[in-house]
Amino acid sequence: MTKTNFDLIVVGGGPGGYVAAIRAAQLGMSVALVERAELGGICLNWGCIPTKALLHSATVLRACREAAHYGVTGAAEARPDLAAMVARSRKVAGRLGQGVAHLMKKNGVTVYAASARLAGSGKLSLDNGAALSAPHIILATGARARDLPALLVDERIWSYRQALVPTEIPKSLLVVGAGAIGAEFASFYRAVGSEVTLIDMTPEILPQEDAEISQLARKAFEKQGIRVLTRCAVTASSPTATGVKVALEQEGKKTELEVDRVIVAAGIVGNVENLGLEQTRVKVEKTHIVTDGLCRTGEPGVYAIGDVAGAPWLAHKASHEAVLCVEAIAGKPAHAIDPLRIPACTYSYPQVASIGMTEARAREHAKQAGGEIRVGKFTFAGNGKAIAMGEDQGLVKTVFDAKSGELLGAHIIHPEASELITGYGVAASLEATEEDLMHTVFAHPTLSETLHESVLSAFGRALHG
User: Fold this and answer.
1) For the chain, N or C: smaller number of CB within 10 Å?
2) To which H or E segment does residue 175 belong?
3) Spatial distance between the Cα atoms of 42 and 415, rounded to a whole number of angstroms
4) Which residues contact 34 (CB under 8 A, 6 or more apart)?
């Protein structure tokens, strides 16, 4: 007889859900995981992983075109094979999805391929007719792309899903939304030859980042030939014989733009529908489930983690929440995540990564507390490894509390920014001060020396800048 009673049921098999299932199994719980689509969720199948595969193809293409600069001849005429790039991206996603399935089997997690709905205290009904029960239920249903009334997705107006599996390279492309997703698609499609226009309603691209870093990213994008329009919104769209005509409004000025394709990357909404929440005390605000620091909702025994539980919408935040939530359920010591210690990364070219407060937010915070901040900056133009790599454009910026030496924020723009930011993440988690960081020995020659120099700069001690 198939088991229907468990210690814990997880709804959603993304980086939050499957990690929760694994950790619970490690702690000796009987666990079921319900996933209506692919194991690994959007991240592994249609988000984080396949986009990085495509972006790496773009990096290889860029390296070939610039090979002569490094003394390698014969590669300058390299061309993108779009079908091969997409096939490789799907293969990478498929491999990781199979890996998650293996982990579920290895850890004894019972997997149900179905949709689930809360059906009373500790009960779930599945759309395949099964009824499950558990004293603890974790909702990890994720989020989806936000629809724009002026841009309804069809064969010419793409969401991230269509943008990941193109059959041809658009000659012209409009990307609506200049956050991380939009910036990454703009970078990829520009690298393979599209004429790209990137727009956002905010004053700068990557609006969640430090203003100085966002401005540097914009300059880098424009240098590559990406047209950037800020304070710009789409008001209407209509099909043409070959593409889409889009009406734009920028600071009161109305214009029209005709492109082959449009990618909509203007935010996300939580997947809270059809979960049976209306019959519970679970509270939903702006399409996201409200939780406390231990991921508990207003309904006893029901928890929410990851994108469905709100910002920041990051896979690693979901995985970390999964562990703390399960450990709290198991009665182990657990502590709420400090959002200021969660790194954020955008894998565009160049990459942008950050942790903690922006300079503007830190200044306001210090002003309210009657204190001051110290800001350090170091460019990669002063780093030997960066110069040797031919990647000497970019900046590391650090923000400290002037009195305590606390690291308030760190911001990096460089092709390797996502790998470098973890150094500051570890420092923040260990509550390292500026003295700790200045006394740390960084290997030479490495890009990470820029992290050290930026700290030294904040206190007037930079050695190479």
Assistant:
1) N
2) strand 172-176
3) 25
4) 9, 10, 11, 12, 13, 111, 112, 114, 115, 116, 124, 126, 132
**Amino acid at residue number 299:** E
Closest alpha carbon to 268 in 421, 432, 142: 142
Using CA atoms, how far apart are residues 180 and 369, in angstroms rounded to an integer?
32
Integer Rg of the chain from CA: 24
CB atoms within 10 A of CB 387: 13
φ/ψ region of 142 (left if φ > 0, alpha if ψ in -120 to 50, else beta) reads left
94 vs 158, 160, 354, CA distance in Å? Answer: 22, 17, 30
Instruction: Tell the residue number behind the tokens 């657990």, with chain if given.
Output: 334
452 noted as active-site residue: no
- Bridge partners, residue 45, by sequence: none
DSSP letters, 233-253, are EEEEEEE-SSSEEEEEEETTE
Query: What one-character-per-residue DSSP string does 373-422 give?
Result: EEEEEEEGGG-HHHHHHT----EEEEEEETTT-BEEEEEEEETTHHHHHH
CB within 8 A of 248, min separation 6: which ones?
A: 199, 229, 232, 233, 234, 235, 254, 255, 256, 257
**Whole-structure pTM value:** 0.95
Say which residue the tokens 């529908």 belong to.
273
Lookup result for tokens 């709804």:
11
The sign one gets for the Cα dihedral 82, 88, 89, 90 is positive
Contact, 384 vs 334, CB < 8 A?
no
Is the peptide bond preceding residue 350 cis, with omega within 30 degrees of 0? yes
- The residue behind tokens 């997997």 is 111
Give the active site residue among 102, 335, 439, 444: 444
Q: Which residues face 136 on adjacent strands?
A: 8
CB atoms within 10 A of CB 238: 10
The burial of 51, by beta-carbon neighbours within 10 Å (0-12 exposed, 13-18 middle, 19 or more buried), is given as: buried
- Residues recorded for the chain: 465
Q: Which tens digit of pLDDT belongs to each residue from 279-333?
A: 899 999 999 999 999 999 999 999 999 999 999 999 999 999 999 999 999 999 9
- Written as one letter, the residue type at 252 is G
- Mean pLDDT in residue range 173-185: 97
Please list, in sequence order, all residues whose beta carbon lies within 8 angstroms of the beta carbon of residue 217, skipping any fewer than 6 positions away.
Answer: 183, 205, 206, 209, 348, 350, 352, 413
Whether 1 shows a pLDDT value over 70: the answer reads no
CA distances from 234 to 153, 259, 264, 404 (A): 14, 13, 10, 46
